[in-house]
Amino acid sequence: MPGILRGGEARQMMEELRIWAGPAAALLSMATAVWVLLTSPTKAVSSRVDDISVRLAKVENDLAHLPDTETFHQLALSVSEMRGDLKALTAHVESAAATSDRLEQWLLKQGK
Fold first, then answer.
1. Helix or strand (DSSP H, E) at 22
2. InterPro entries, per this entry (predicted)?
3. CA distances from 109 to 97, 100, 103, 106 (A)
């Protein structure tokens, strides 16, 4: 039968397998070690890049809701206008308070 090995042939084939098995296992082990060394930093860098991408997307989203330069300038002008209006209002309130004080003093003198 062509597919069956005889005792001597089987022994010789086993001996050849034993000779090659050690170096083949060592070569496979070294290849695995090299692959792990080459891909581990890549995975770490990839993970770090993913983290930075998420953080960058958050910062971009936060910045999108902030006013731009023109809007900020308009806000500054509006605050400045409001300060002027508040000063004018304060002057009117002080005038009204002084009038009220004088009226109160006059009423107190009339009540004696």
1. helix 7-64
2. Phage_Mu_Releasin (IPR020269)
3. 18, 14, 10, 5
Spatial distance between the Cα atoms of 56 and 48, rounded to a whole number of angstroms: 12
Taking the model in full, what pTM does it have?
0.41
Give the position of tokens 């930075």: 52
Report the C-alpha gap between 28 and 36 in whole angstroms.
Answer: 12
pLDDT digit string (tens) for 52-109? Answer: 999 999 999 998 888 888 999 999 999 999 999 999 999 999 999 999 999 999 998 9
- Which token pair is 33? 């070690």
List C-alpha distances in Å: 16 to 5, 6, 24, 85, 98.
Answer: 14, 15, 12, 101, 116
